[in-house]
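hey so i finaly got around to running the thing on Cytosolic Fe-S cluster assembly factor NUBP2 homolog from Opisthorchis felineus. pasting the sequence first so u can double check i didnt mess up the copy paste, my clipboard has been acting weird all day
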Amino acid sequence: MTIGLLDTDFCGPSIPRILGLENRKVHACPEGWMPIYADGPMQRLRVMSIGFLVDQPDAAVVWRGPRKSSMIETMLNSVCWGQLDCLVIDTPPGTSDEHLTVLNQIQQLPEDKVAGAVIVSTPQRVSLCDVRREIGFCSKTGLKILGLVENMSGYRCSNCSHCCNLFSSGGAEFLAKEKQLPFLGRLPLDSTLTALCDSADRFDLKSHTTEDTMKILQELFRHCPTLASACP
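ok and heres what it spat out for the 3d tokens, dont ask me to read them lol
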């Protein structure tokens, strides 16, 4: 299965760091730009991010909306993605120019080619207020919502397995029921996965995550048939 991953968070492009791809640079080809292959010669995970285009990893991208929109259009249309089974687009929080540009581009595709949006929230009311606006955005623009994920939903001690709800719990599930949307599950704080992302080392997800983390990922894939075959 071949997957493209597009990072449209210009203010905080974290994908290169998480995947251990910092300091990699994009190269031009006759058709446009070549994506970065996160898995090397296998070329099954193809990544594009503004983080590959800045001179320094800590450099701030101070762009107004039109320039951001132009870059997103370039990333979608001028990157040599090749034949993909799925393109995952990671957007920043909120409903800003990035979201409008992405939506405008994908609306030009046949309806059966667009799976929909996965909305991620933390349990607190402050976060849920933003998520309500994002749900409204999807509703107004006709974008299907695959479901809600509650992130940072408790911390399970690796020694005694006790779960402590640091940021309360259940807010996203309550909102999903209220809006009659699928609730994909709670993603707990996973200290092992966090450490691996911070270290920027490549790792096998199944070997380095807890059972709870894998369960919610499998549930997410189940709601998105295009990705289902990637998570048996």
